[in-house]
Amino acid sequence: MAKKSTIEKNERRKRMVAQQAAKRKALADTVRSVKATDEEKRAAQVALQKLPRNGAAARVRNRCQMTGRSRAYIAAFGLSRIAFREMALQGLLPGVRKASW
Fold this sequence. Notes:
- By secondary structure, the protein is mainly alpha-helical.
- It has two domains: 1-61, Helix Hairpins (Orthogonal Bundle); 62-101, CATH 4.10.830.10.
- The protein contains three helices and two strands; from the N terminus they run ααββα.
- A hairpin with a 4-residue loop joins strand 1 and strand 2.
């Protein structure tokens, strides 16, 4: 089980990403725009750099919903491999069953 502080830090980052997404996207579009002048692009780049780092989506870590484990994350289920296996063996995941051939 991951530390509660680590899980909470990741949740704060998710909230900040949601808050900053529109502003960050608008500034990034301005920086990439062909029609924007060099001055506008530079101003947008400076504004983008002044936004909080934790507002960037790349800083959010995928974590298991049950345990908070960050490694061996299965995105389709939102679980780590360990939690996935336990739930699958108990029959709690619809459509999942042990392979046999």
